[in-house]
Amino acid sequence: MAKRRRAAYSRGKRLKLSKNGRQVVWLIVVFLAALFAVGVYRFIRFSTNEIFHSFDHPQFSQKYLVRGVDVSHHNSYINWHQLREENITFVYLKSTEGSKHKDRDYKKNYKVAKDAGLRIGSYHFYTFGRDGKKQAQHFIRNSTLQSGDMIPAIDVEHSAINRACNDKESHGRMIKELRNLESALFKQYGKRPVIYTNKECYKMYIKDNFPDNPLWICDLHKEPGGDYKNWVMWQFSHTGKISGVVNDIDLNYYRNSFDDFKKLLLP
Questions:
Q1: In terms of pTM, does the model score above 0.90?
Q2: What secondary structure, in 3-state letters, does 48-95 show?
Q3: In a 3-state reduction of DSSP, which class is residue 10?
Q4: 36-75, pLDDT tens digit by residue?
Q5: What does 94-155 look like in DSSP terms, one character per residue?
Q6: Where does residue 213 fall: left (phi above 0), alpha (psi -120 to 50 degrees), or beta otherwise?
Q7: CATH assignment of 67-264, given 3.40.50.12780, 3.20.20.80, 3.40.30.10, 3.40.190.10?
Q8: What is the rounded CA–CA span in Å between residue 263 and residue 261?
């Protein structure tokens, strides 16, 4: 009888331990799942975020000495004189978009940036597939480009109104009108306009169609490499932090020296 009681007690103890063991295993599983979820979140966050947000990154701050920003009406207050004191050499200002839209802050930004001593470029946001000659005329009519200013730029990127041209007809029309826009600006200013784009749009539209234009590459994750034959500027951040600017601003490096930078200036 005593043996049976001891045996029953031992079985109960084993069952109790087994139950406790299951709880421990469950807690370990939950902990590992949470740890995995945190790891996935950090990976996604890192892969989608920009690699840096200022001109102080040790890998590039001494490699690229010519620094610039680009600005539109979306930007908040800018102290242009302080920006110049932060060793910013150039600024590209949004002037126009499509054949009708004008950036409401362009004229004001041009004047105050010029007064601060920055080199100024003006850019046009290209509307895919719309009349390129009309877009060029709209830009020329509403933009200020003087001797010593930077070559005008064309912004080529997907957006809410610029859907990817995946079919042959829309792709052909997009390239045709972009050529018309580019040719009209070349004829007007005597230099091939800079083309601003990113990896996706470069492969889809620019690479095989505009081999002679200087490229302004947007890549928030890595430095442009040999894939871009003619790249001269690198936009590396959309959330840049710099003294004299309220909120975020786009940051850019010019690829080469100050002397070489003169190639981007209008005669």
A1: no
A2: HCCCCCCCCCCCCCCCCCCEEEEECCCCCCECHHHHHHCCEEEEEEEE
A3: helix
A4: 554 444 443 433 455 689 999 889 999 999 999 999 999 9
A5: EEEETTTEE-TTHHHHHHHHHHTT-EEEEEEEPPTTS-HHHHHHHHHHH----TTSBPPEEE
A6: beta
A7: 3.20.20.80
A8: 5
